[in-house]
Structure formats: C-alpha cells, structure tokens
C-alpha cells in the first residue's frame, strides 16, 4: 500500500514537472517570437498587447490579408475573410475526423461551441428553445428589476468596483436562473465558473492549473447533483429540459460540459462587455452624455460597445480540405486564426473604425458573436442584458465614471477589466 502511494506521488511529481517544462518552453517560445522575430500574433500575448491589442491589429492589417503566427498558421484581421471562414461548412473548430464520441473524449470543452455537425446540430437544437424570443422576453422584467436593485446599492456606496458591484451580479443572476440553479448554490457556481472561464486563454502556471482542476471537478460534481435534483423535481429551466431528453437526444457525458459552457459564456462575456463599455464611455464622454440625454439609444450603444472593444477577441478554425481563401492556399488540417477584435475595426466595413459612435448605422455588423452555424446561441440574452443595463445606468447614474485605471484580465482571448474603480457622485 505504501509503495503504491509512493509510486502515485512520484507519478504526480513527474507529471507536474513535465507540465512546468512545457509551460516554460511555451513562454520562452512566445517571448522569442514576439521580441526577437517581431511576430505580431505573438505580441498580442505580451502585456502591451493585452492592455491595447488594436495597434497590433493595425500592423497585421498593413502586412496584408494574412500573416503567420509563431506556429506557422495563418492569422487575419479582415472582416470579410473572418466572416467567410466562420460561415464555411468546410472549416470547423476541430478536425472533421475522427468522429466525436462524448463517452471517450478527454476534451472537457467538447460542447456545441467546439464540435462539428451533426453533433453540433443535435446539441444546439436542444438548447435553442431556452434562448428563443418567447423565453428571452420572459426574462426582461427580471433583468430590469435586478439592474435597479444593483443601482440602488451603487447609489448608497457612491464609489465602488464596477465589475464587482454592477457588471458581475446581473449576468450571474440571469444565467443561473435560466439553468435552474438554486439560489443558495449560485455563489459557488459563479466562483468555479469564473476560474474555468479565466483559463480559456491558457493556463498561466502550476497554481492556476491546480485551481482549474479543482474547479472543474467541483463544478461537475455540483452539476451531477443538480441533474439528480431535476430528475426528481423538474422545473421550467434548461437543466430540466436536458434531463428530460437524456439518453434520447443527449448523452449523459455531454450534459455537464454543455451546462459548463452555458454557465461560463452566460456571464463571462457579458461581464467583460459591461466593463469595456464603461471604459469606452469614459474615454468618449460626449457619447456618454449623448446616452444620458437619450437612454433610448442604449440598443445602438450596445452594438457599438461590442464592435469597438469585443469581449471575445479571437477564435480559430481548421480547414477540412485543401482550399483557398482570398487567394491564399490553405492546406487540409491547417488552422486559421480569426482576430475578431481586429475585424470589428476593419475600415473596409466601418467608417472611422477607431471612433466610438453609439449612433453608428452598421455597428451590428460586428463579429463579436461569431458567424455561421456557431453564431452565439445566447446573443439575444446578452443584448437584452447589455441594452437594459446601459439604459438604466445612463438614466439613474449620469455621473458614473472611473476614478482609477482598470486592471485587465490576463487573457488574450477574453478582453475586459478584472476591476474598475468608479464613482457615481
């Protein structure tokens, strides 16, 4: 028994050593590519790139339709090319073969976001009714009431962290209600979901890896308990619907990853969009004053916030065949990085793209919700939350403004402030 424990311990030490070595090698490789070879996609991962990626996107645009990342794959900031790749059925988030098997996969993110048809089609069909017009319309009174509660607290505080007090509470309340998570468990789901969401751009170190593993296990255990609860006490929520078709339309092994995705995507990107919007309004006070004067402009403001500083900065697709995009041959099995943040400021689509204008006529042409069959399932809910929030904030907190520089998340995939001290006085 003791020998077995020692062997297990030695194996864990070796595994940790291999992980640390690979992580260090990746950082060295990225640093060398960015600083010695001048590789622009690699520069996005550096501190200046995380603070403001848009000058780097413009340098990429100057190089032409495509540039290479440090692994030799193509990267593009052109809106038309990004949209074409996202809409093409001959590109996907993972290789076309071998076939996806939820019972055998080791990929914890094997969800509607990261799999190909026909499994993508099947899983999306199950989740779609929860985000339809009728379902989202029913959430509007709750969203309005929750925002007013949040603003009541903010008014009493006077000065506070915008992310902690405003940006985070709204979407977590909405998505946990949508999923059917009991109120006394919502803080736990938020905590573990935030850890997993923060790892979408990659693992930063051994401590981060350990926290991620713990969060993943805890979240899966909590979902397993919730599935059992909803089998016995079904409600009008997403998890109850999944349980009702378990074994027929969805495999048991698919349920927890799908719920994880909906939980994380349901609050992580909305939190970032609210924070990015607050910063954009502060740096363009004339646009904030315009919204304060006419809160009905909130829907247009939402689209411009999503375009101007996207919560999701990039995605990638792999080619299933030898093909050609914008005159560039692409081999089967080759990845193309799609820089959505750069595409949203493409001057070929948006006039004066670096100007923040909440009355921009074509702001909704942004790619912040992706495009094609993987177009964001929850975008109607996100738009409802953001539009309602911006409108009420402008109406009730007209003096809202930051009083300190933001602290950004250490991520190149998701962009948004981790903390933002503001005042409403």
UniProtKB/TrEMBL annotation:
Domain of life: Bacteria
Keyword Metal-binding tagged: yes
Organism: Rudaeicoccus suwonensis
GO terms, molecular function: heme binding; iron ion binding; monooxygenase activity; oxidoreductase activity, acting on paired donors, with incorporation or reduction of molecular oxygen
InterPro entries in the record: Cyt_P450, Cyt_P450_B, Cyt_P450_CS, Cyt_P450_sf
Family assignment from sequence similarity: Belongs to the cytochrome P450 family.
Taxon lineage: Bacteria, Bacillati, Actinomycetota, Actinomycetes, Micrococcales
Assigned keywords, A-Z: Heme, Iron, Metal-binding, Monooxygenase, Oxidoreductase
Keyword Cell membrane: no
Name of the protein in question: Cytochrome P450
């Amino acid at each position: 028994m003791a020998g077995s424990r020692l062997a297990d311990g030695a194996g864990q030490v070796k595994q940790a050593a291999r992980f640390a070595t690979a992580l260090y090698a990746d950082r060295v490789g990225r640093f060398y590519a960015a600083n010695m070879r001048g590789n622009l996609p690699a520069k996005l991962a550096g501190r200046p790139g995380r603070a403001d990626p848009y000058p780097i996107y413009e340098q990429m645009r100057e190089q032409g339709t495509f540039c290479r990342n440090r692994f030799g794959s193509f990267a593009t900031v052109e809106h038309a090319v990004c949209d074409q790749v996202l809409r093409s059925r001959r590109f996907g988030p993972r290789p076309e073969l071998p076939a996806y098997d939820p019972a055998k996969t080791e990929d914890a993110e094997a969800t509607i976001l990261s799999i190909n048809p026909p499994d993508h089609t099947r899983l999306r069909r199950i989740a779609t009714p929860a985000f339809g017009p009728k379902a989202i319309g029913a959430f509007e009174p709750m969203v309005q009431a929750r925002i007013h509660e949040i603003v009541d607290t903010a008014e009493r505080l006077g000065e506070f962290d915008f992310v902690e007090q405003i940006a985070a509470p709204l979407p977590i309340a909405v998505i946990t209600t949508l999923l059917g998570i009991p109120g006394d468990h919502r803080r736990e789901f938020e905590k573990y979901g935030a850890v997993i969401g923060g790892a979408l751009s990659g693992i930063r170190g051994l401590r981060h890896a350990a926290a991620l593993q713990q969060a993943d296990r805890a979240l899966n255990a909590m979902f397993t308990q919730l599935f059992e609860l909803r089998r016995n006490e079904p409600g009008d929520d997403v998890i109850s619907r999944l349980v009702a078709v378990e074994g027929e339309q969805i495999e048991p092994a698919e349920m927890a990853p799908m719920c994880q995705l909906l939980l994380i995507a349901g609050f992580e990107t909305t939190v970032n969009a609210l924070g990015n919007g607050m910063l954009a309004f502060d740096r363009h006070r004339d646009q904030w004053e315009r919204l304060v004067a006419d809160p009905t402009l909130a829907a247009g403001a939402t689209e411009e916030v999503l375009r101007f500083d996207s919560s999701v900065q990039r995605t990638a697709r792999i080619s299933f065949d030898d093909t050609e995009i914008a005159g560039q041959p692409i081999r089967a099995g080759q990845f193309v990085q799609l820089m959505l943040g750069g595409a949203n400021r493409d001057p070929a689509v948006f006039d004066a793209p670096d100007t923040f204008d909440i009355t921009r006529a074509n702001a909704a042409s942004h790619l912040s919700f992706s495009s094609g069959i993987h177009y964001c399932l929850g975008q109607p809910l996100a738009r409802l939350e953001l539009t309602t929030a911006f409108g009420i904030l402008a109406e009730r907190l007209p003096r809202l403004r930051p009083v300190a520089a933001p602290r950004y998340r250490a991520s190149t995939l998701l962009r948004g402030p981790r903390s933002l001290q503001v005042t409403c006085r």
